[in-house]
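Incident review: delayed structure delivery

Summary: a single-chain prediction request sat in the queue longer than the usual turnaround. Root cause was a stuck worker, restarted by the on-call engineer. No data loss occurred. The affected request and its eventual output are reproduced below so the record is complete for anyone auditing the incident later.

Affected input:
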Amino acid sequence: MMSLEERLVLSGVLTAADCRTVLELGYGEGGCTRWLSHHCDSVVTVDLDASVNNAFALWNVVPMQMTTQRALEQLAKQEDRFDLAIVDAGHDADSVLSDVLGAAKIANVLLLHDIFYPPTRRGAMQAVSQLNCWHNFDVATGYFKDDVLWGGIGIICPNLAVDDEPLSSSTLGNDYIRRLFEVRKQRHLFKAPKWLVRFTQLLAKVWDDASDAR
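Output delivered after worker restart:
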């Protein structure tokens, strides 16, 4: 369910950071899980849906059928550590905020999928404002789907502190803003004035969130 660009970013992160142990929040259809099992020593994948148990067929993958919050609490209690955590479960702001803060306690690098989806980005922005760490939310750009921005890859390094202006790198990333303004290229949107109103409200919300975070 990732674009080619997103897959290349994931591959690059695994190689550059020498990630051998991975935590995956959000199993989905298991495509990423199967790929990770071929490139890593061990993978823990979490999803509330029973389909996550299909991962038992992979020798080095441990599936956890439960909420991400419960899984993160359990893994932290066990003092487990991961080279990489992929955050791709609930995409609402509250879920992303909780997942990022929880994963930051037990993983060296966090990779966030669908960071261009507005609620996901808001949750991630709230999380990094609390973590005060290095991040970049525009590593891979998103795309329009059903009149909404989806996709994109963001990276958070919880152990790499940023003392000054922690949100300056991607609170309002150039690629994110550019994608928002590409609305004029979507011909069918000219027939949807309600969407244009929502677009204006979204842009205002992004600016408000950035101001509040600072």
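Verification: The helical segments are 4-16, 31-39, 68-77, 93-103, 118-131, 174-181, 193-213.
Action items: add queue-age alerting; document worker restart procedure.
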